[in-house]
């Protein structure tokens, strides 16, 4: 059933003014989690750079909030695989993600140890990795209905290694 736009707008304003304990009766964290999309950004999401003095890997994330609530990314845990476990990390900076909007500037960077460099170079086929990259992420987001936990696996191929 479609809600007419003026009524839908007024309903969203009302929901925004209600206290969290009341809203939790109608909106469960699982329902909110289904309206949050987390992925790597579309433009150069994974950068593996050996040409720097200290080689590093950088990941750029995109989060789209389709929920009726403003969210705050509390932390994002990252498990990164290139054929096998390569590194674990976390984004601990908090990002506000307004309702109905997206954020593209969520960034993770990590210096590579010698063992990680050797593992990645062994899978580097010229300019691209010869195996797909897998990320398992767990995002913790604060909302008016409480803490939301979201797990996601992201697979990518054709990842450049310079």
What does this structure look like?
- This protein is an alpha+beta fold and 162 residues long.
- A hairpin with a 6-residue loop joins β2 (46-49) and β3.
- Strands 4, 5, 6, 10 and 11 form a 5-stranded antiparallel β-sheet that branches.
- It is built from 4 helices and 11 strands; from the N terminus they run αααβββββββαββββ.
- It starts with a helix and ends in a 6-residue tail after the last strand.
Key structural traits:
5-stranded antiparallel beta sheet, single chain, alpha+beta, 162 residues
Secondary-structure blueprint:
Blueprint: H1 5-17, H2 20-23, H3 29-33, E1 36-40, E2 46-49, E3 56-65, E4 71-82, E5 85-91, E6 95-97, E7 102-111, H4 114-121, E8 124-125, E9 128-129, E10 133-143, E11 146-156
Antiparallel strand pairs: 1-3, 2-3, 3-7, 4-5, 4-6, 4-10, 8-9, 10-11
The residue fraction in helices comes out at 10-25%
Main β sheet profile: 5 strands, antiparallel
Percentage beta strand: over 45%
Poorly predicted segments: none
SSE topology string: HHHEEEEEEEHEEEE
Distance between the termini: 52 Å
Structural class: alpha+beta
User: Which value, in Å, is the CA radius of gyration?
Assistant: 19 Å
The helix count comes to 4
Total number of β-strand segments? 11
Q: Given the C-alpha coordinates, what overall shape results?
A: elongated
Would you tell me the overall average pLDDT? 86
């Amino acid at each position: 059933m479609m809600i007419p736009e003026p009524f839908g707008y007024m309903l969203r304003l009302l929901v925004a003014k209600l206290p969290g304990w009341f809203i939790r009766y109608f909106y469960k964290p699982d329902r909110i989690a289904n309206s949050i999309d987390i992925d790597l950004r579309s433009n150069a999401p994974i950068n593996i750079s050996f040409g720097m003095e200290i080689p590093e890997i950088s990941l750029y994330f995109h989060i789209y909030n389709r929920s009726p609530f403003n969210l705050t990314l509390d932390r994002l845990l990252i498990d990164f695989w290139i054929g096998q476990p390569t590194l674990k990390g976390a984004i601990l900076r908090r990002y506000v993600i307004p309702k109905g909007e997206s954020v593209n500037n969520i960034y993770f960077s990590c210096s590579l140890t010698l063992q990680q460099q050797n593992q990645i170079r062994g899978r580097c086929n010229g300019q691209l990795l010869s195996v797909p990259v897998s990320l398992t992420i767990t995002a913790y987001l604060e909302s008016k209905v409480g803490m939301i936990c979201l797990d996601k696996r992201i697979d990518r191929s054709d990842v450049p290694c310079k």
